[in-house]
Each structure stands twice: as C-alpha cells, then as structure tokens.
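Protocol step 4 of 6: record predicted structures for both targets in the notebook before any analysis. Target 1:
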Amino acid sequence: MRGLYDPWLTPEQKLLNESNTQKSRANKLFSSSRFSEAIGEYDKALSSCPNYLDYECAVLKSNIAACHLKLEDWKEAVESATAALDALDRLQPKKITKGKEYNEDDEKVGVVVEIAGDDEDVEKELAELQLSDERKEDVRRIRAKALMRRAKGRMEQGGWGSLAGAEEDYRELSKMSKLPAQDRRVAQSALATLPSRINAAKEKEMGEMMSKLKELGNGILKPFGLSTDMFKMNKDPSTGGYNMSFEQGR
C-alpha cells in the first residue's frame, strides 16, 4: 500500500489519504465520546478533502451531524446533515422519469443510457457510469443516515417548520426499500405522532403571530380612540373565508 507521501500518488490521492487519516482519528474520538474534538478532526478532514469529491465530503458532513446530535446542538446537526444530502444530490441527483419523480424502485428496471462524444469522452463517461454503479449502495446508505440525523435534529428543534421538515424526511425514509429495520421503526413511529405535533405547533405559532399583530394594530389605532377589539372577524361557512365587521362602542 502506498504511503501518504508516495511520489507516485497524484495530488488528489495525497489529499484524500490525508483526509482519510484525519477521518480515522475523528472516528476514534467519536467512539470515545469526545464529540467536540471529533468535530474538529472531521473539519480538518473536510479541509484536506478535494471539495469536488461529493461522496467523501457527504460522509464527513454526516459524521459531523452525528457529533452535533450527541452534543444536543440540534441546529448545527440539521445544517450538517443538510450539507451532506446536498453533496449526495450533486453526486446522484434525483431523476424525473416520464413526468414523475424518480424513486429508487425505478433503478430495478434496466435503462439504456446514450453516450455521446469521441473515444476519449466515451471511455470517461463509461468509467463514470461504472463508478456510479459501484457507489450506488454506499450513496443510499449515507443518504439514509443523513436523513435520519436531520429528521432527529428537526424533531428536537420543534416548531412548525422543523416538525414539518422532519415529517418529510421520515416519509422519504419510509419509502427506502433497504432501510435498516430499526430505522424503519423509528420513521414509522415518528410519522404516527408528528401530525398532531405539527398541528399543535402551527396553532401555537399562529396564535403568537396574531397576538403580535393585535399589539401592533392597537399601537396604530390608539391615537384615533380605536382598538382591534372593535373589529370582529366572522367566518363565512359557505366559502370558508372571513368578513370583518366594526363594532363601535366596545
């Protein structure tokens, strides 16, 4: 096996070897529950890794998300997991097939790929297709991990938007045919409980927003001897819309 500074290695290989060495140190720190230190080493590994190697970068960013979850830093966990998923999307973007969104079951059906270009381009494209086939399972595995980590972070963050995002992540996970059984149980359990949590968070945030709007409105109306309590919103049962009426003397 060639060493880190083997003169026969390309610049990319040297950088990747250095990144993998730092990643190994970070993995050991993670296993020792030294999560903050592990993040530092993973960051060093990212700095060494060529940024166009999307798969390698996605693995590191997903691992960073795992560290943030352990530290209960939910916001950073969500951001790191999202960065990992973005990298995977660049590597293997979601496809559109016959007017419908691509899903992994589509890959079970053989697809003819047209390759254009001269001989050199053809060899390059064939190599990229082969690499894609070899990495397919790895990409699926890391995507599932990153989605689980982002969903967990969003669940813990709470709030209408975060909970709705978690529901989307768990729904995508539930459609993965090769998702580990334990992760599938977590996703199914979350999908069963999230709708009520989302509705409660929505009502709370809408109430808080209306309260702030009322406070603002009262500030504007006060100089005129008016208040928002003088205005009543009436729901029209036939259309579902609202009409405003003014009730003087309140």
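Target 2:
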Amino acid sequence: MAARQPRFNQALLYDTTPLPSSIPPVDEIGASSAPLLSAAYFIGARCRLFNDDYMKCKTDAYGRGEFECMREGRKVTRCATSVLEDINKNCLDEFRRHWSCLENNNQQLWQCRKHEWKLNGCVFDKLKLEKKIPDAPANETPVHLRKRQIFSHNETGVIT
C-alpha cells in the first residue's frame, strides 16, 4: 500500500467562478452523440454562419480563444438547440427512428439510410433544410442518396 496520497482522484471538480456579464448565458444541448449525429447536417445548414464566426475567432486568437470566443460559441450552441427543437416539433418520429438506428448500429450512417431518407424528406418539407455533404464531387450522386449501398446488412445492398 502506498504511503503517499493520490494526486488524482474520482472527485468531481467544479469551477465556481462566475462568467462575466458580457458573455450571455446558454443551457447545454443535453443530447447524446446519436441525436447530434442524426441532426448534424441540418445543424450545419442552419448554423453555418455562426460556426464560421466561431472558427474565425478561434483562428484569429492563435489558440488562446477559449475565453475570447465564448460569445460566438454560445451563439453556435443556441442555434444547434433551435434546430433540435424544430426537428423534435416537426419530425419527431422520423428523427427518433434514425437516431435509434444509429445508436443500435455503432453510429454507422450507412446502416440507417432508409430511416435517414425519411428524416431528410420530413426536415426538407417542414423546415426547408437540406442535407449537403461539404466538398462532395458535383458530378457524382451523394453517398446518402445512392439506392445501392456498398456496405449493408442485406446481401444485395439495395435499400428498399
């Protein structure tokens, strides 16, 4: 048995220092990775300008931007929260089916294309947000729109 006290332990540490009033408060999103992955392209579509502002701030701060860019980061969080709220209000069943599929298939998007197509259609019809993969070749069908998947649970690879 060691005679010295451990340097690190399992206790939770909380920083009780309040943020300055110049930084607007925002609640955490409170979603696990599967719903965030399911909604990621829609969050990117609606929140692109906020994300770009945040990344520019981080780049301009040369790695010291955690505190300086908190205002922009909070805007990104509020925007992402609004997207998730809108999806939950308008497309809850499709959204839940898709992220449950992701949760049950190790977050592999290609395993859940059938549910993804239904979610994409609902979100486009009701929220006018479209899934676009950045920097995808213009002359090819995007991977999420292909009828035949290279990797698939079924033997033919054709999604029905």
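Step 5 preliminary note on target 2. The two ends are 62 Å apart (CA to CA). The longest helix spans residues 70-90.
Proceed to step 6 after PI sign-off.
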